[in-house]
Backbone:
């Protein structure tokens, strides 16, 4: 593997300069050199001017966009996206589907039909657009506001609703809070509530994919896509994940959804640098900032990021996708306690990934008011149908409370299940097991 | 935007039950929802309050729930000393459980502020501030999210004084508050109660109140009366559910002192936090059905704990049950039971029983089967008395 990597490095002058692990190169301070050659900072020029870098003097990292908020392409000379209109319509419908489901489920939570929900309003473009650039073999680690990634990768309404109602068809066996989806193929690891924990995991997973591809050239090259918010990027795991991915050259694309709020905390109290993108540069990671309301820009950036991640033997990439969290953090949050209603209304009216793509589609003659109405009506009916079926379905058997802690149920857990069954049988009036598959026999 | 129009759910057949996993069986007489309005554990009048807390007669009180009582304690602390600071995620707008409501506007953003989203940063920041003479109250949004700060708590806060030695520098004055425990639908990551993990670490005090008035007195004692770091765990289901009279002024309840909440002669039940209410309900049913007289002890401080009060009680009753919500394996019950068999062995007339969460994670749909309930405590009482 080392030889192979060296061969690749040797062909790329830039890589040869910056990316060769330093233990392979001899570093010494030559007399009369105009630059420092300490192991920790190679190639830094000496200067007699004492000057602290003040970040506010540096220009902000620009934001890549392809289309403006009227759905018009900004650069007429730009080469086309290379995606069929049919495919773009699929993206639009996937964003719409997430949005329609979000509205129904948010309201359903308010009615007490499920315990919790989180919508993606304003961020559908980031999740759908980035997932569209992945292959089904790529692996995803997500946070909790990436419903569009699941939707774009083929998660069905039946899958969504089974998880939301934690019924016996739920991949998570009824164990997780709503919106903590997980999918075997295309692989999206089950959502974990703690923030940022998935970031170093993604780095390790990507390294595993890289090693496997080196060990078996017949399997397709794969990347890991890792999603998180700008709040999560304050956790130590963000630093750990990006730094270790850089040092091990893991083929992972980090996608930060910068939506302006971590629950109530605005970005001004979250960090003082130039967003999250500026940090990627510090880790030596290829980085871009994109307009998250522009699904074309997100798709193109992700497609290129995927290519970069697999080039030169693999390396991490950071995408910071800018958006505005139109919704409350979750159904447990009332965001008007900390931000003005007018601010939210303003954003909703001004810009939004769904409306922007809809304008483009209408400009192309691919969409109109009738199609919009009919599609929404059909989607809403489909959601409600799947909702009703999932809600009526039984919960998993109670023994699933004890399985999967270890590969096999321990002797201790077996004894506890026996004791639980004794209790339930001794006090049958105290427990209602009718909604669980197999009732008391399911323990 | 028209997509935000409220939909109608007419097309969906009304469900036979709501999602709530706490819905009791229709025929239940033990596993009923706790009626906090009539629980003998809460001070429903100011008279019972002043008897219990040994307060001067001039004391005024107000009926508060637990988040209001904690808010009152924090306000009292911030008023009493400029050394007190309050910070954490989303603290500025009042906190996700409303414990810090209005405190930033009353005391300013120098002492009450939001932090970035980093638990290791929050606790490390608090340790540093405490080491330099402040009394920082750090909020971790959920106990489930304290683990990035485990290094700071276990290796730093707990060992600070010990490694400094004669410099006498320490992390005392730091209180790390965190909501803990089950609410019925928190699943894996909004339910945990990691007191046993912290109680394994000498050097931090671990406290869990059972009620609003207890919360205020114990929190003020944690902030002001000890120079040791304190992990202050707040059973979040009590934030709104438990309402009682709480003294308006400054008062403290000593740490590391258990309380005999209900005296009895035949059996001792030792618990803390929310399961105190389950124990109380089980005791009422058992005393009625079995004619026994049962003592209930609230540990209040999990570590360092009041061994003497527990041993004295078991020496009197000869029987003991330990009840807690978190997992039974290597839990607080194991420590208490081992201490009892060591210190009161010859008086024991039955094995010390533990009623606690099973050794698994709290899967969403299974919570009510995993965590202790009144029926399981009732059954343990029956078995222990009949042994």
Residues:
């Amino acid at each position: 593997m080392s030889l192979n990597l060296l061969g690749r490095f040797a062909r790329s002058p830039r890589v040869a300069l910056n990316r060769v692990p330093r233990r392979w190169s001899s570093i010494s301070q030559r007399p009369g050199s105009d630059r420092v050659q300490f192991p920790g900072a190679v190639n830094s020029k000496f200067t007699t001017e004492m000057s602290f870098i003040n970040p506010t003097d540096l220009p902000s990292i620009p934001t890549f966009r392809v289309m403006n908020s009227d759905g018009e392409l900004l650069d007429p000379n730009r080469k086309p996206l290379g995606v069929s209109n049919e495919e773009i319509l699929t993206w639009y419908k996937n964003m719409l589907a997430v949005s329609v489901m979000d509205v129904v489920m948010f309201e359903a939570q308010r009615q007490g039909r499920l315990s919790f929900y989180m919508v993606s309003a304003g961020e559908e473009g980031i999740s759908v657009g980035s997932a569209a650039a992945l292959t089904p073999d790529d692996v995803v680690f997500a946070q909790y506001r990436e419903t569009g990634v699941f939707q774009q990768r083929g998660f069905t309404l039946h899958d969504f609703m089974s998880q939301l109602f934690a019924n016996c068809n739920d991949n998570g066996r009824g164990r997780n809070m709503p919106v903590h989806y997980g999918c075997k193929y295309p692989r999206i690891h089950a959502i974990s509530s703690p923030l940022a924990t998935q970031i170093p995991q993604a780095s390790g997973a990507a390294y595993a994919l890289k090693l496997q591809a080196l060990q078996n050239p017949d399997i397709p090259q794969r990347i890991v896509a890792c999603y998180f918010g700008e709040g999560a990027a304050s956790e130590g795991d963000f630093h750990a994940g990006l730094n270790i991915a850089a040092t091990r050259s893991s083929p992972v694309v980090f996608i930060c959804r910068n939506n302006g709020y971590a629950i109530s905390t605005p970005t001004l109290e979250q960090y003082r640098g130039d967003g999250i993108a500026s940090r990627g540069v510090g880790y030596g990671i290829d980085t871009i900032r994109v307009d998250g309301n522009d699904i074309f820009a997100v798709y193109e950036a992700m497609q290129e990021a995927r290519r970069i991640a697999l080039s030169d033997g693999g390396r991490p990439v950071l995408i910071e996708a800018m958006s505005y969290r139109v919704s409350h953090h979750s159904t447990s949050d009332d965001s008007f306690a900390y931000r003005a209603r007018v601010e939210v209304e303003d954003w909703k009216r001004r810009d939004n990934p769904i409306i922007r793509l809809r304008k483009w589609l209408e400009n192309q003659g691919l969409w109109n008011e009738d199609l919009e109405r009919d599609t929404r009506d059909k989607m809403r009916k489909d959601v409600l149908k799947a909702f009703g079926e999932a809600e009526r379905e039984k919960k998993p058997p109670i023994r699933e409370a004890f399985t999967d802690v270890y590969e096999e149920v321990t002797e201790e857990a077996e004894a506890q299940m026996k004791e639980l069954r004794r209790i339930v049988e001794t006090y049958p009036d105290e427990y209602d097991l009718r909604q669980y598959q197999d009732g008391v026999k399911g323990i | 935007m028209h997509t935000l129009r409220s939909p109608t759910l007419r097309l969906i057949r009304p469900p036979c039950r709501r999602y709530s996993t706490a819905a009791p069986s229709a025929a239940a007489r033990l596993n009923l929802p706790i009626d906090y309005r009539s629980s003998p554990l809460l001070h429903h009048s100011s008279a019972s309050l002043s008897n219990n807390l040994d307060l001067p007669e001039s004391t005024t009180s107000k009926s508060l729930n637990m988040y209001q009582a904690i808010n009152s304690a924090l306000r009292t602390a911030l008023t009493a000393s400029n050394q007190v600071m309050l910070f954490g995620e989303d603290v500025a707008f009042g906190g996700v459980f409303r414990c810090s409501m209005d405190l930033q506007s009353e005391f300013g953003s120098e002492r009450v502020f939001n932090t970035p989203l980093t638990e290791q940063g929050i606790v490390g920041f608090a340790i540093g501030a405490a080491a330099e003479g402040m009394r920082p109250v750090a909020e971790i949004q959920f106990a489930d999210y304290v683990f990035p700060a485990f290094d700071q708590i276990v290796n730093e806060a707990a060992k600070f004084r010990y490694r400094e030695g004669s410099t006498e520098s320490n992390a005392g004055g730091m209180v790390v508050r965190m909501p803990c425990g089950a609410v019925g639908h928190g699943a894996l990551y909004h339910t945990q109660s990691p007191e046993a993990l912290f109680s394994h670490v000498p050097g931090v005090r671990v406290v869990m109140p059972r009620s609003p008035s207890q919360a205020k007195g114990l929190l003020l004692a944690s902030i002001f009366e000890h120079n040791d770091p304190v992990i202050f765990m707040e059973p979040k289901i009590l934030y709104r559910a438990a309402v009682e009279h709480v003294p308006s002024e400054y008062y403290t309840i000593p740490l590391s002192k258990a309380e005999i909440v209900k005296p009895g002669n035949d059996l001792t039940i030792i618990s803390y936090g929310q399961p105190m209410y389950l124990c109380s309900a089980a005791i009422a049913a058992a005393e009625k059905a079995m004619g026994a007289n049962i003592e209930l002890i609230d540990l209040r401080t999990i570590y360092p704990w009041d061994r003497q009060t527990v041993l004295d009680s078991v020496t009197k009753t000869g029987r003991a049950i330990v009840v807690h919500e978190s997992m039974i394996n290597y839990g607080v019950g194991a420590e208490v039971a081992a201490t009892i068999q060591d210190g009161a062995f010859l008086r024991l007339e039955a094995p010390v029983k533990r009623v606690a969460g099973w050794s698994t994670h709290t899967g969403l749909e299974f919570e009510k089967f995993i965590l202790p309930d009144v029926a399981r405590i009732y059954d343990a009482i029956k078995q222990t008395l009949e042994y």
User: Anything to note?
Assistant: The mean pLDDT of chain A is 93. The domain at 59-392 of chain A is CATH 3.40.50.970 (Rossmann fold).
